């Protein structure tokens, strides 16, 4: 590791920018592919024809007389839902009740990371670097939660990208700590 404070600031800023870019790519990939563990289940009424398979010896007249409500009830029972329940099953992760993948939050996280990188690169004062360390380590914690979530969901590519983003943020925090620990020369 270099001991030149200018190069260390540049390395920290580069890691913050690279992490922000990888984060954006990971979000785009995750939204583009969808999560296999989050099926879209919707209970709907079957078409007007009978959906039940024809069994030898059954009468068509009995099926024709069945009410649409009974058919819908049978369809929801087959789908694993209780009758009358019309829900969409989407498992979205939330942190303290907030969806971290909401577009405004994603954009804010990327902007904050880029702003921290710019300030570290241009200014480099101790307070600025400490603020960037807080940002980097906070994002690293969220990235590690995302890795865990993606592993549970079975999306390997997004889990790998989230892991790389976490490593980038941790390394940026490490460079920041090295910058802050250096004695100040006035």
Description of the structure:
The structure is a single chain. By secondary structure, the chain is mostly helical. The chain folds into two domains: 5-36 and 102-181; 44-85, no CATH class. Helix content is 64%, strand content 0%. It has six helices and no strands. It has helices spanning 5-33, 60-64, 68-78, 103-122, 126-153, 156-181.
How many β-strand stretches?
0
Residues in helix, %: 55-70%
Low-confidence parts: 35-47, 66-91
Count of DSSP H/I helices = 6
Radius of gyration: 26 Å
Give the averaged pLDDT, no decimals: 76
Determine the N-to-C terminus distance: 24 Å
Shape: elongated
Write the layout of secondary structure elements.
Layout: H1 5-33, H2 60-64, H3 68-78, H4 103-122, H5 126-153, H6 156-181
Short description:
The chain is mainly α. 64% of the residues lie in helices and 0% in strands. The protein folds into two domains: 112 residues; 42 residues, no CATH class.
Structural descriptors:
elongated, 6 helices, 186 residues, mainly alpha, 2 domains, single chain
């Amino acid at each position: 590791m270099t001991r030149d404070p200018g190069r260390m600031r540049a390395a920290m800023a580069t890691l913050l920018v690279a992490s922000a870019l990888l984060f954006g790519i990971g979000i785009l990939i995750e939204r583009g592919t969808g999560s296999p563990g989050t099926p879209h289940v919707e209970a709907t009424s079957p078409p007007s024809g009978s959906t039940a398979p024809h069994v030898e010896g059954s009468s068509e007249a009995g099926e024709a007389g069945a009410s649409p409500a009974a058919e819908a009830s049978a369809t929801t029972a087959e789908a694993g839902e209780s009758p009358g329940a019309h829900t969409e099953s989407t498992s979205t992760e939330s942190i303290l009740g907030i969806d971290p993948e909401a577009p405004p939050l994603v954009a804010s996280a990327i902007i904050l990371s880029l702003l921290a990188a710019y300030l570290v690169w241009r200014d480099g004062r101790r307070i600025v670097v400490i603020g960037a360390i807080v940002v980097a380590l906070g994002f690293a914690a969220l990235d590690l939660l995302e890795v865990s979530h993606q592993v549970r969901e079975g999306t390997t590519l997004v889990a790998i990208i989230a892991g790389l983003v976490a490593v980038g943020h941790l390394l940026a925090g490490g460079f920041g700590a090295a910058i802050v620990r250096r004695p100040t020369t006035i």
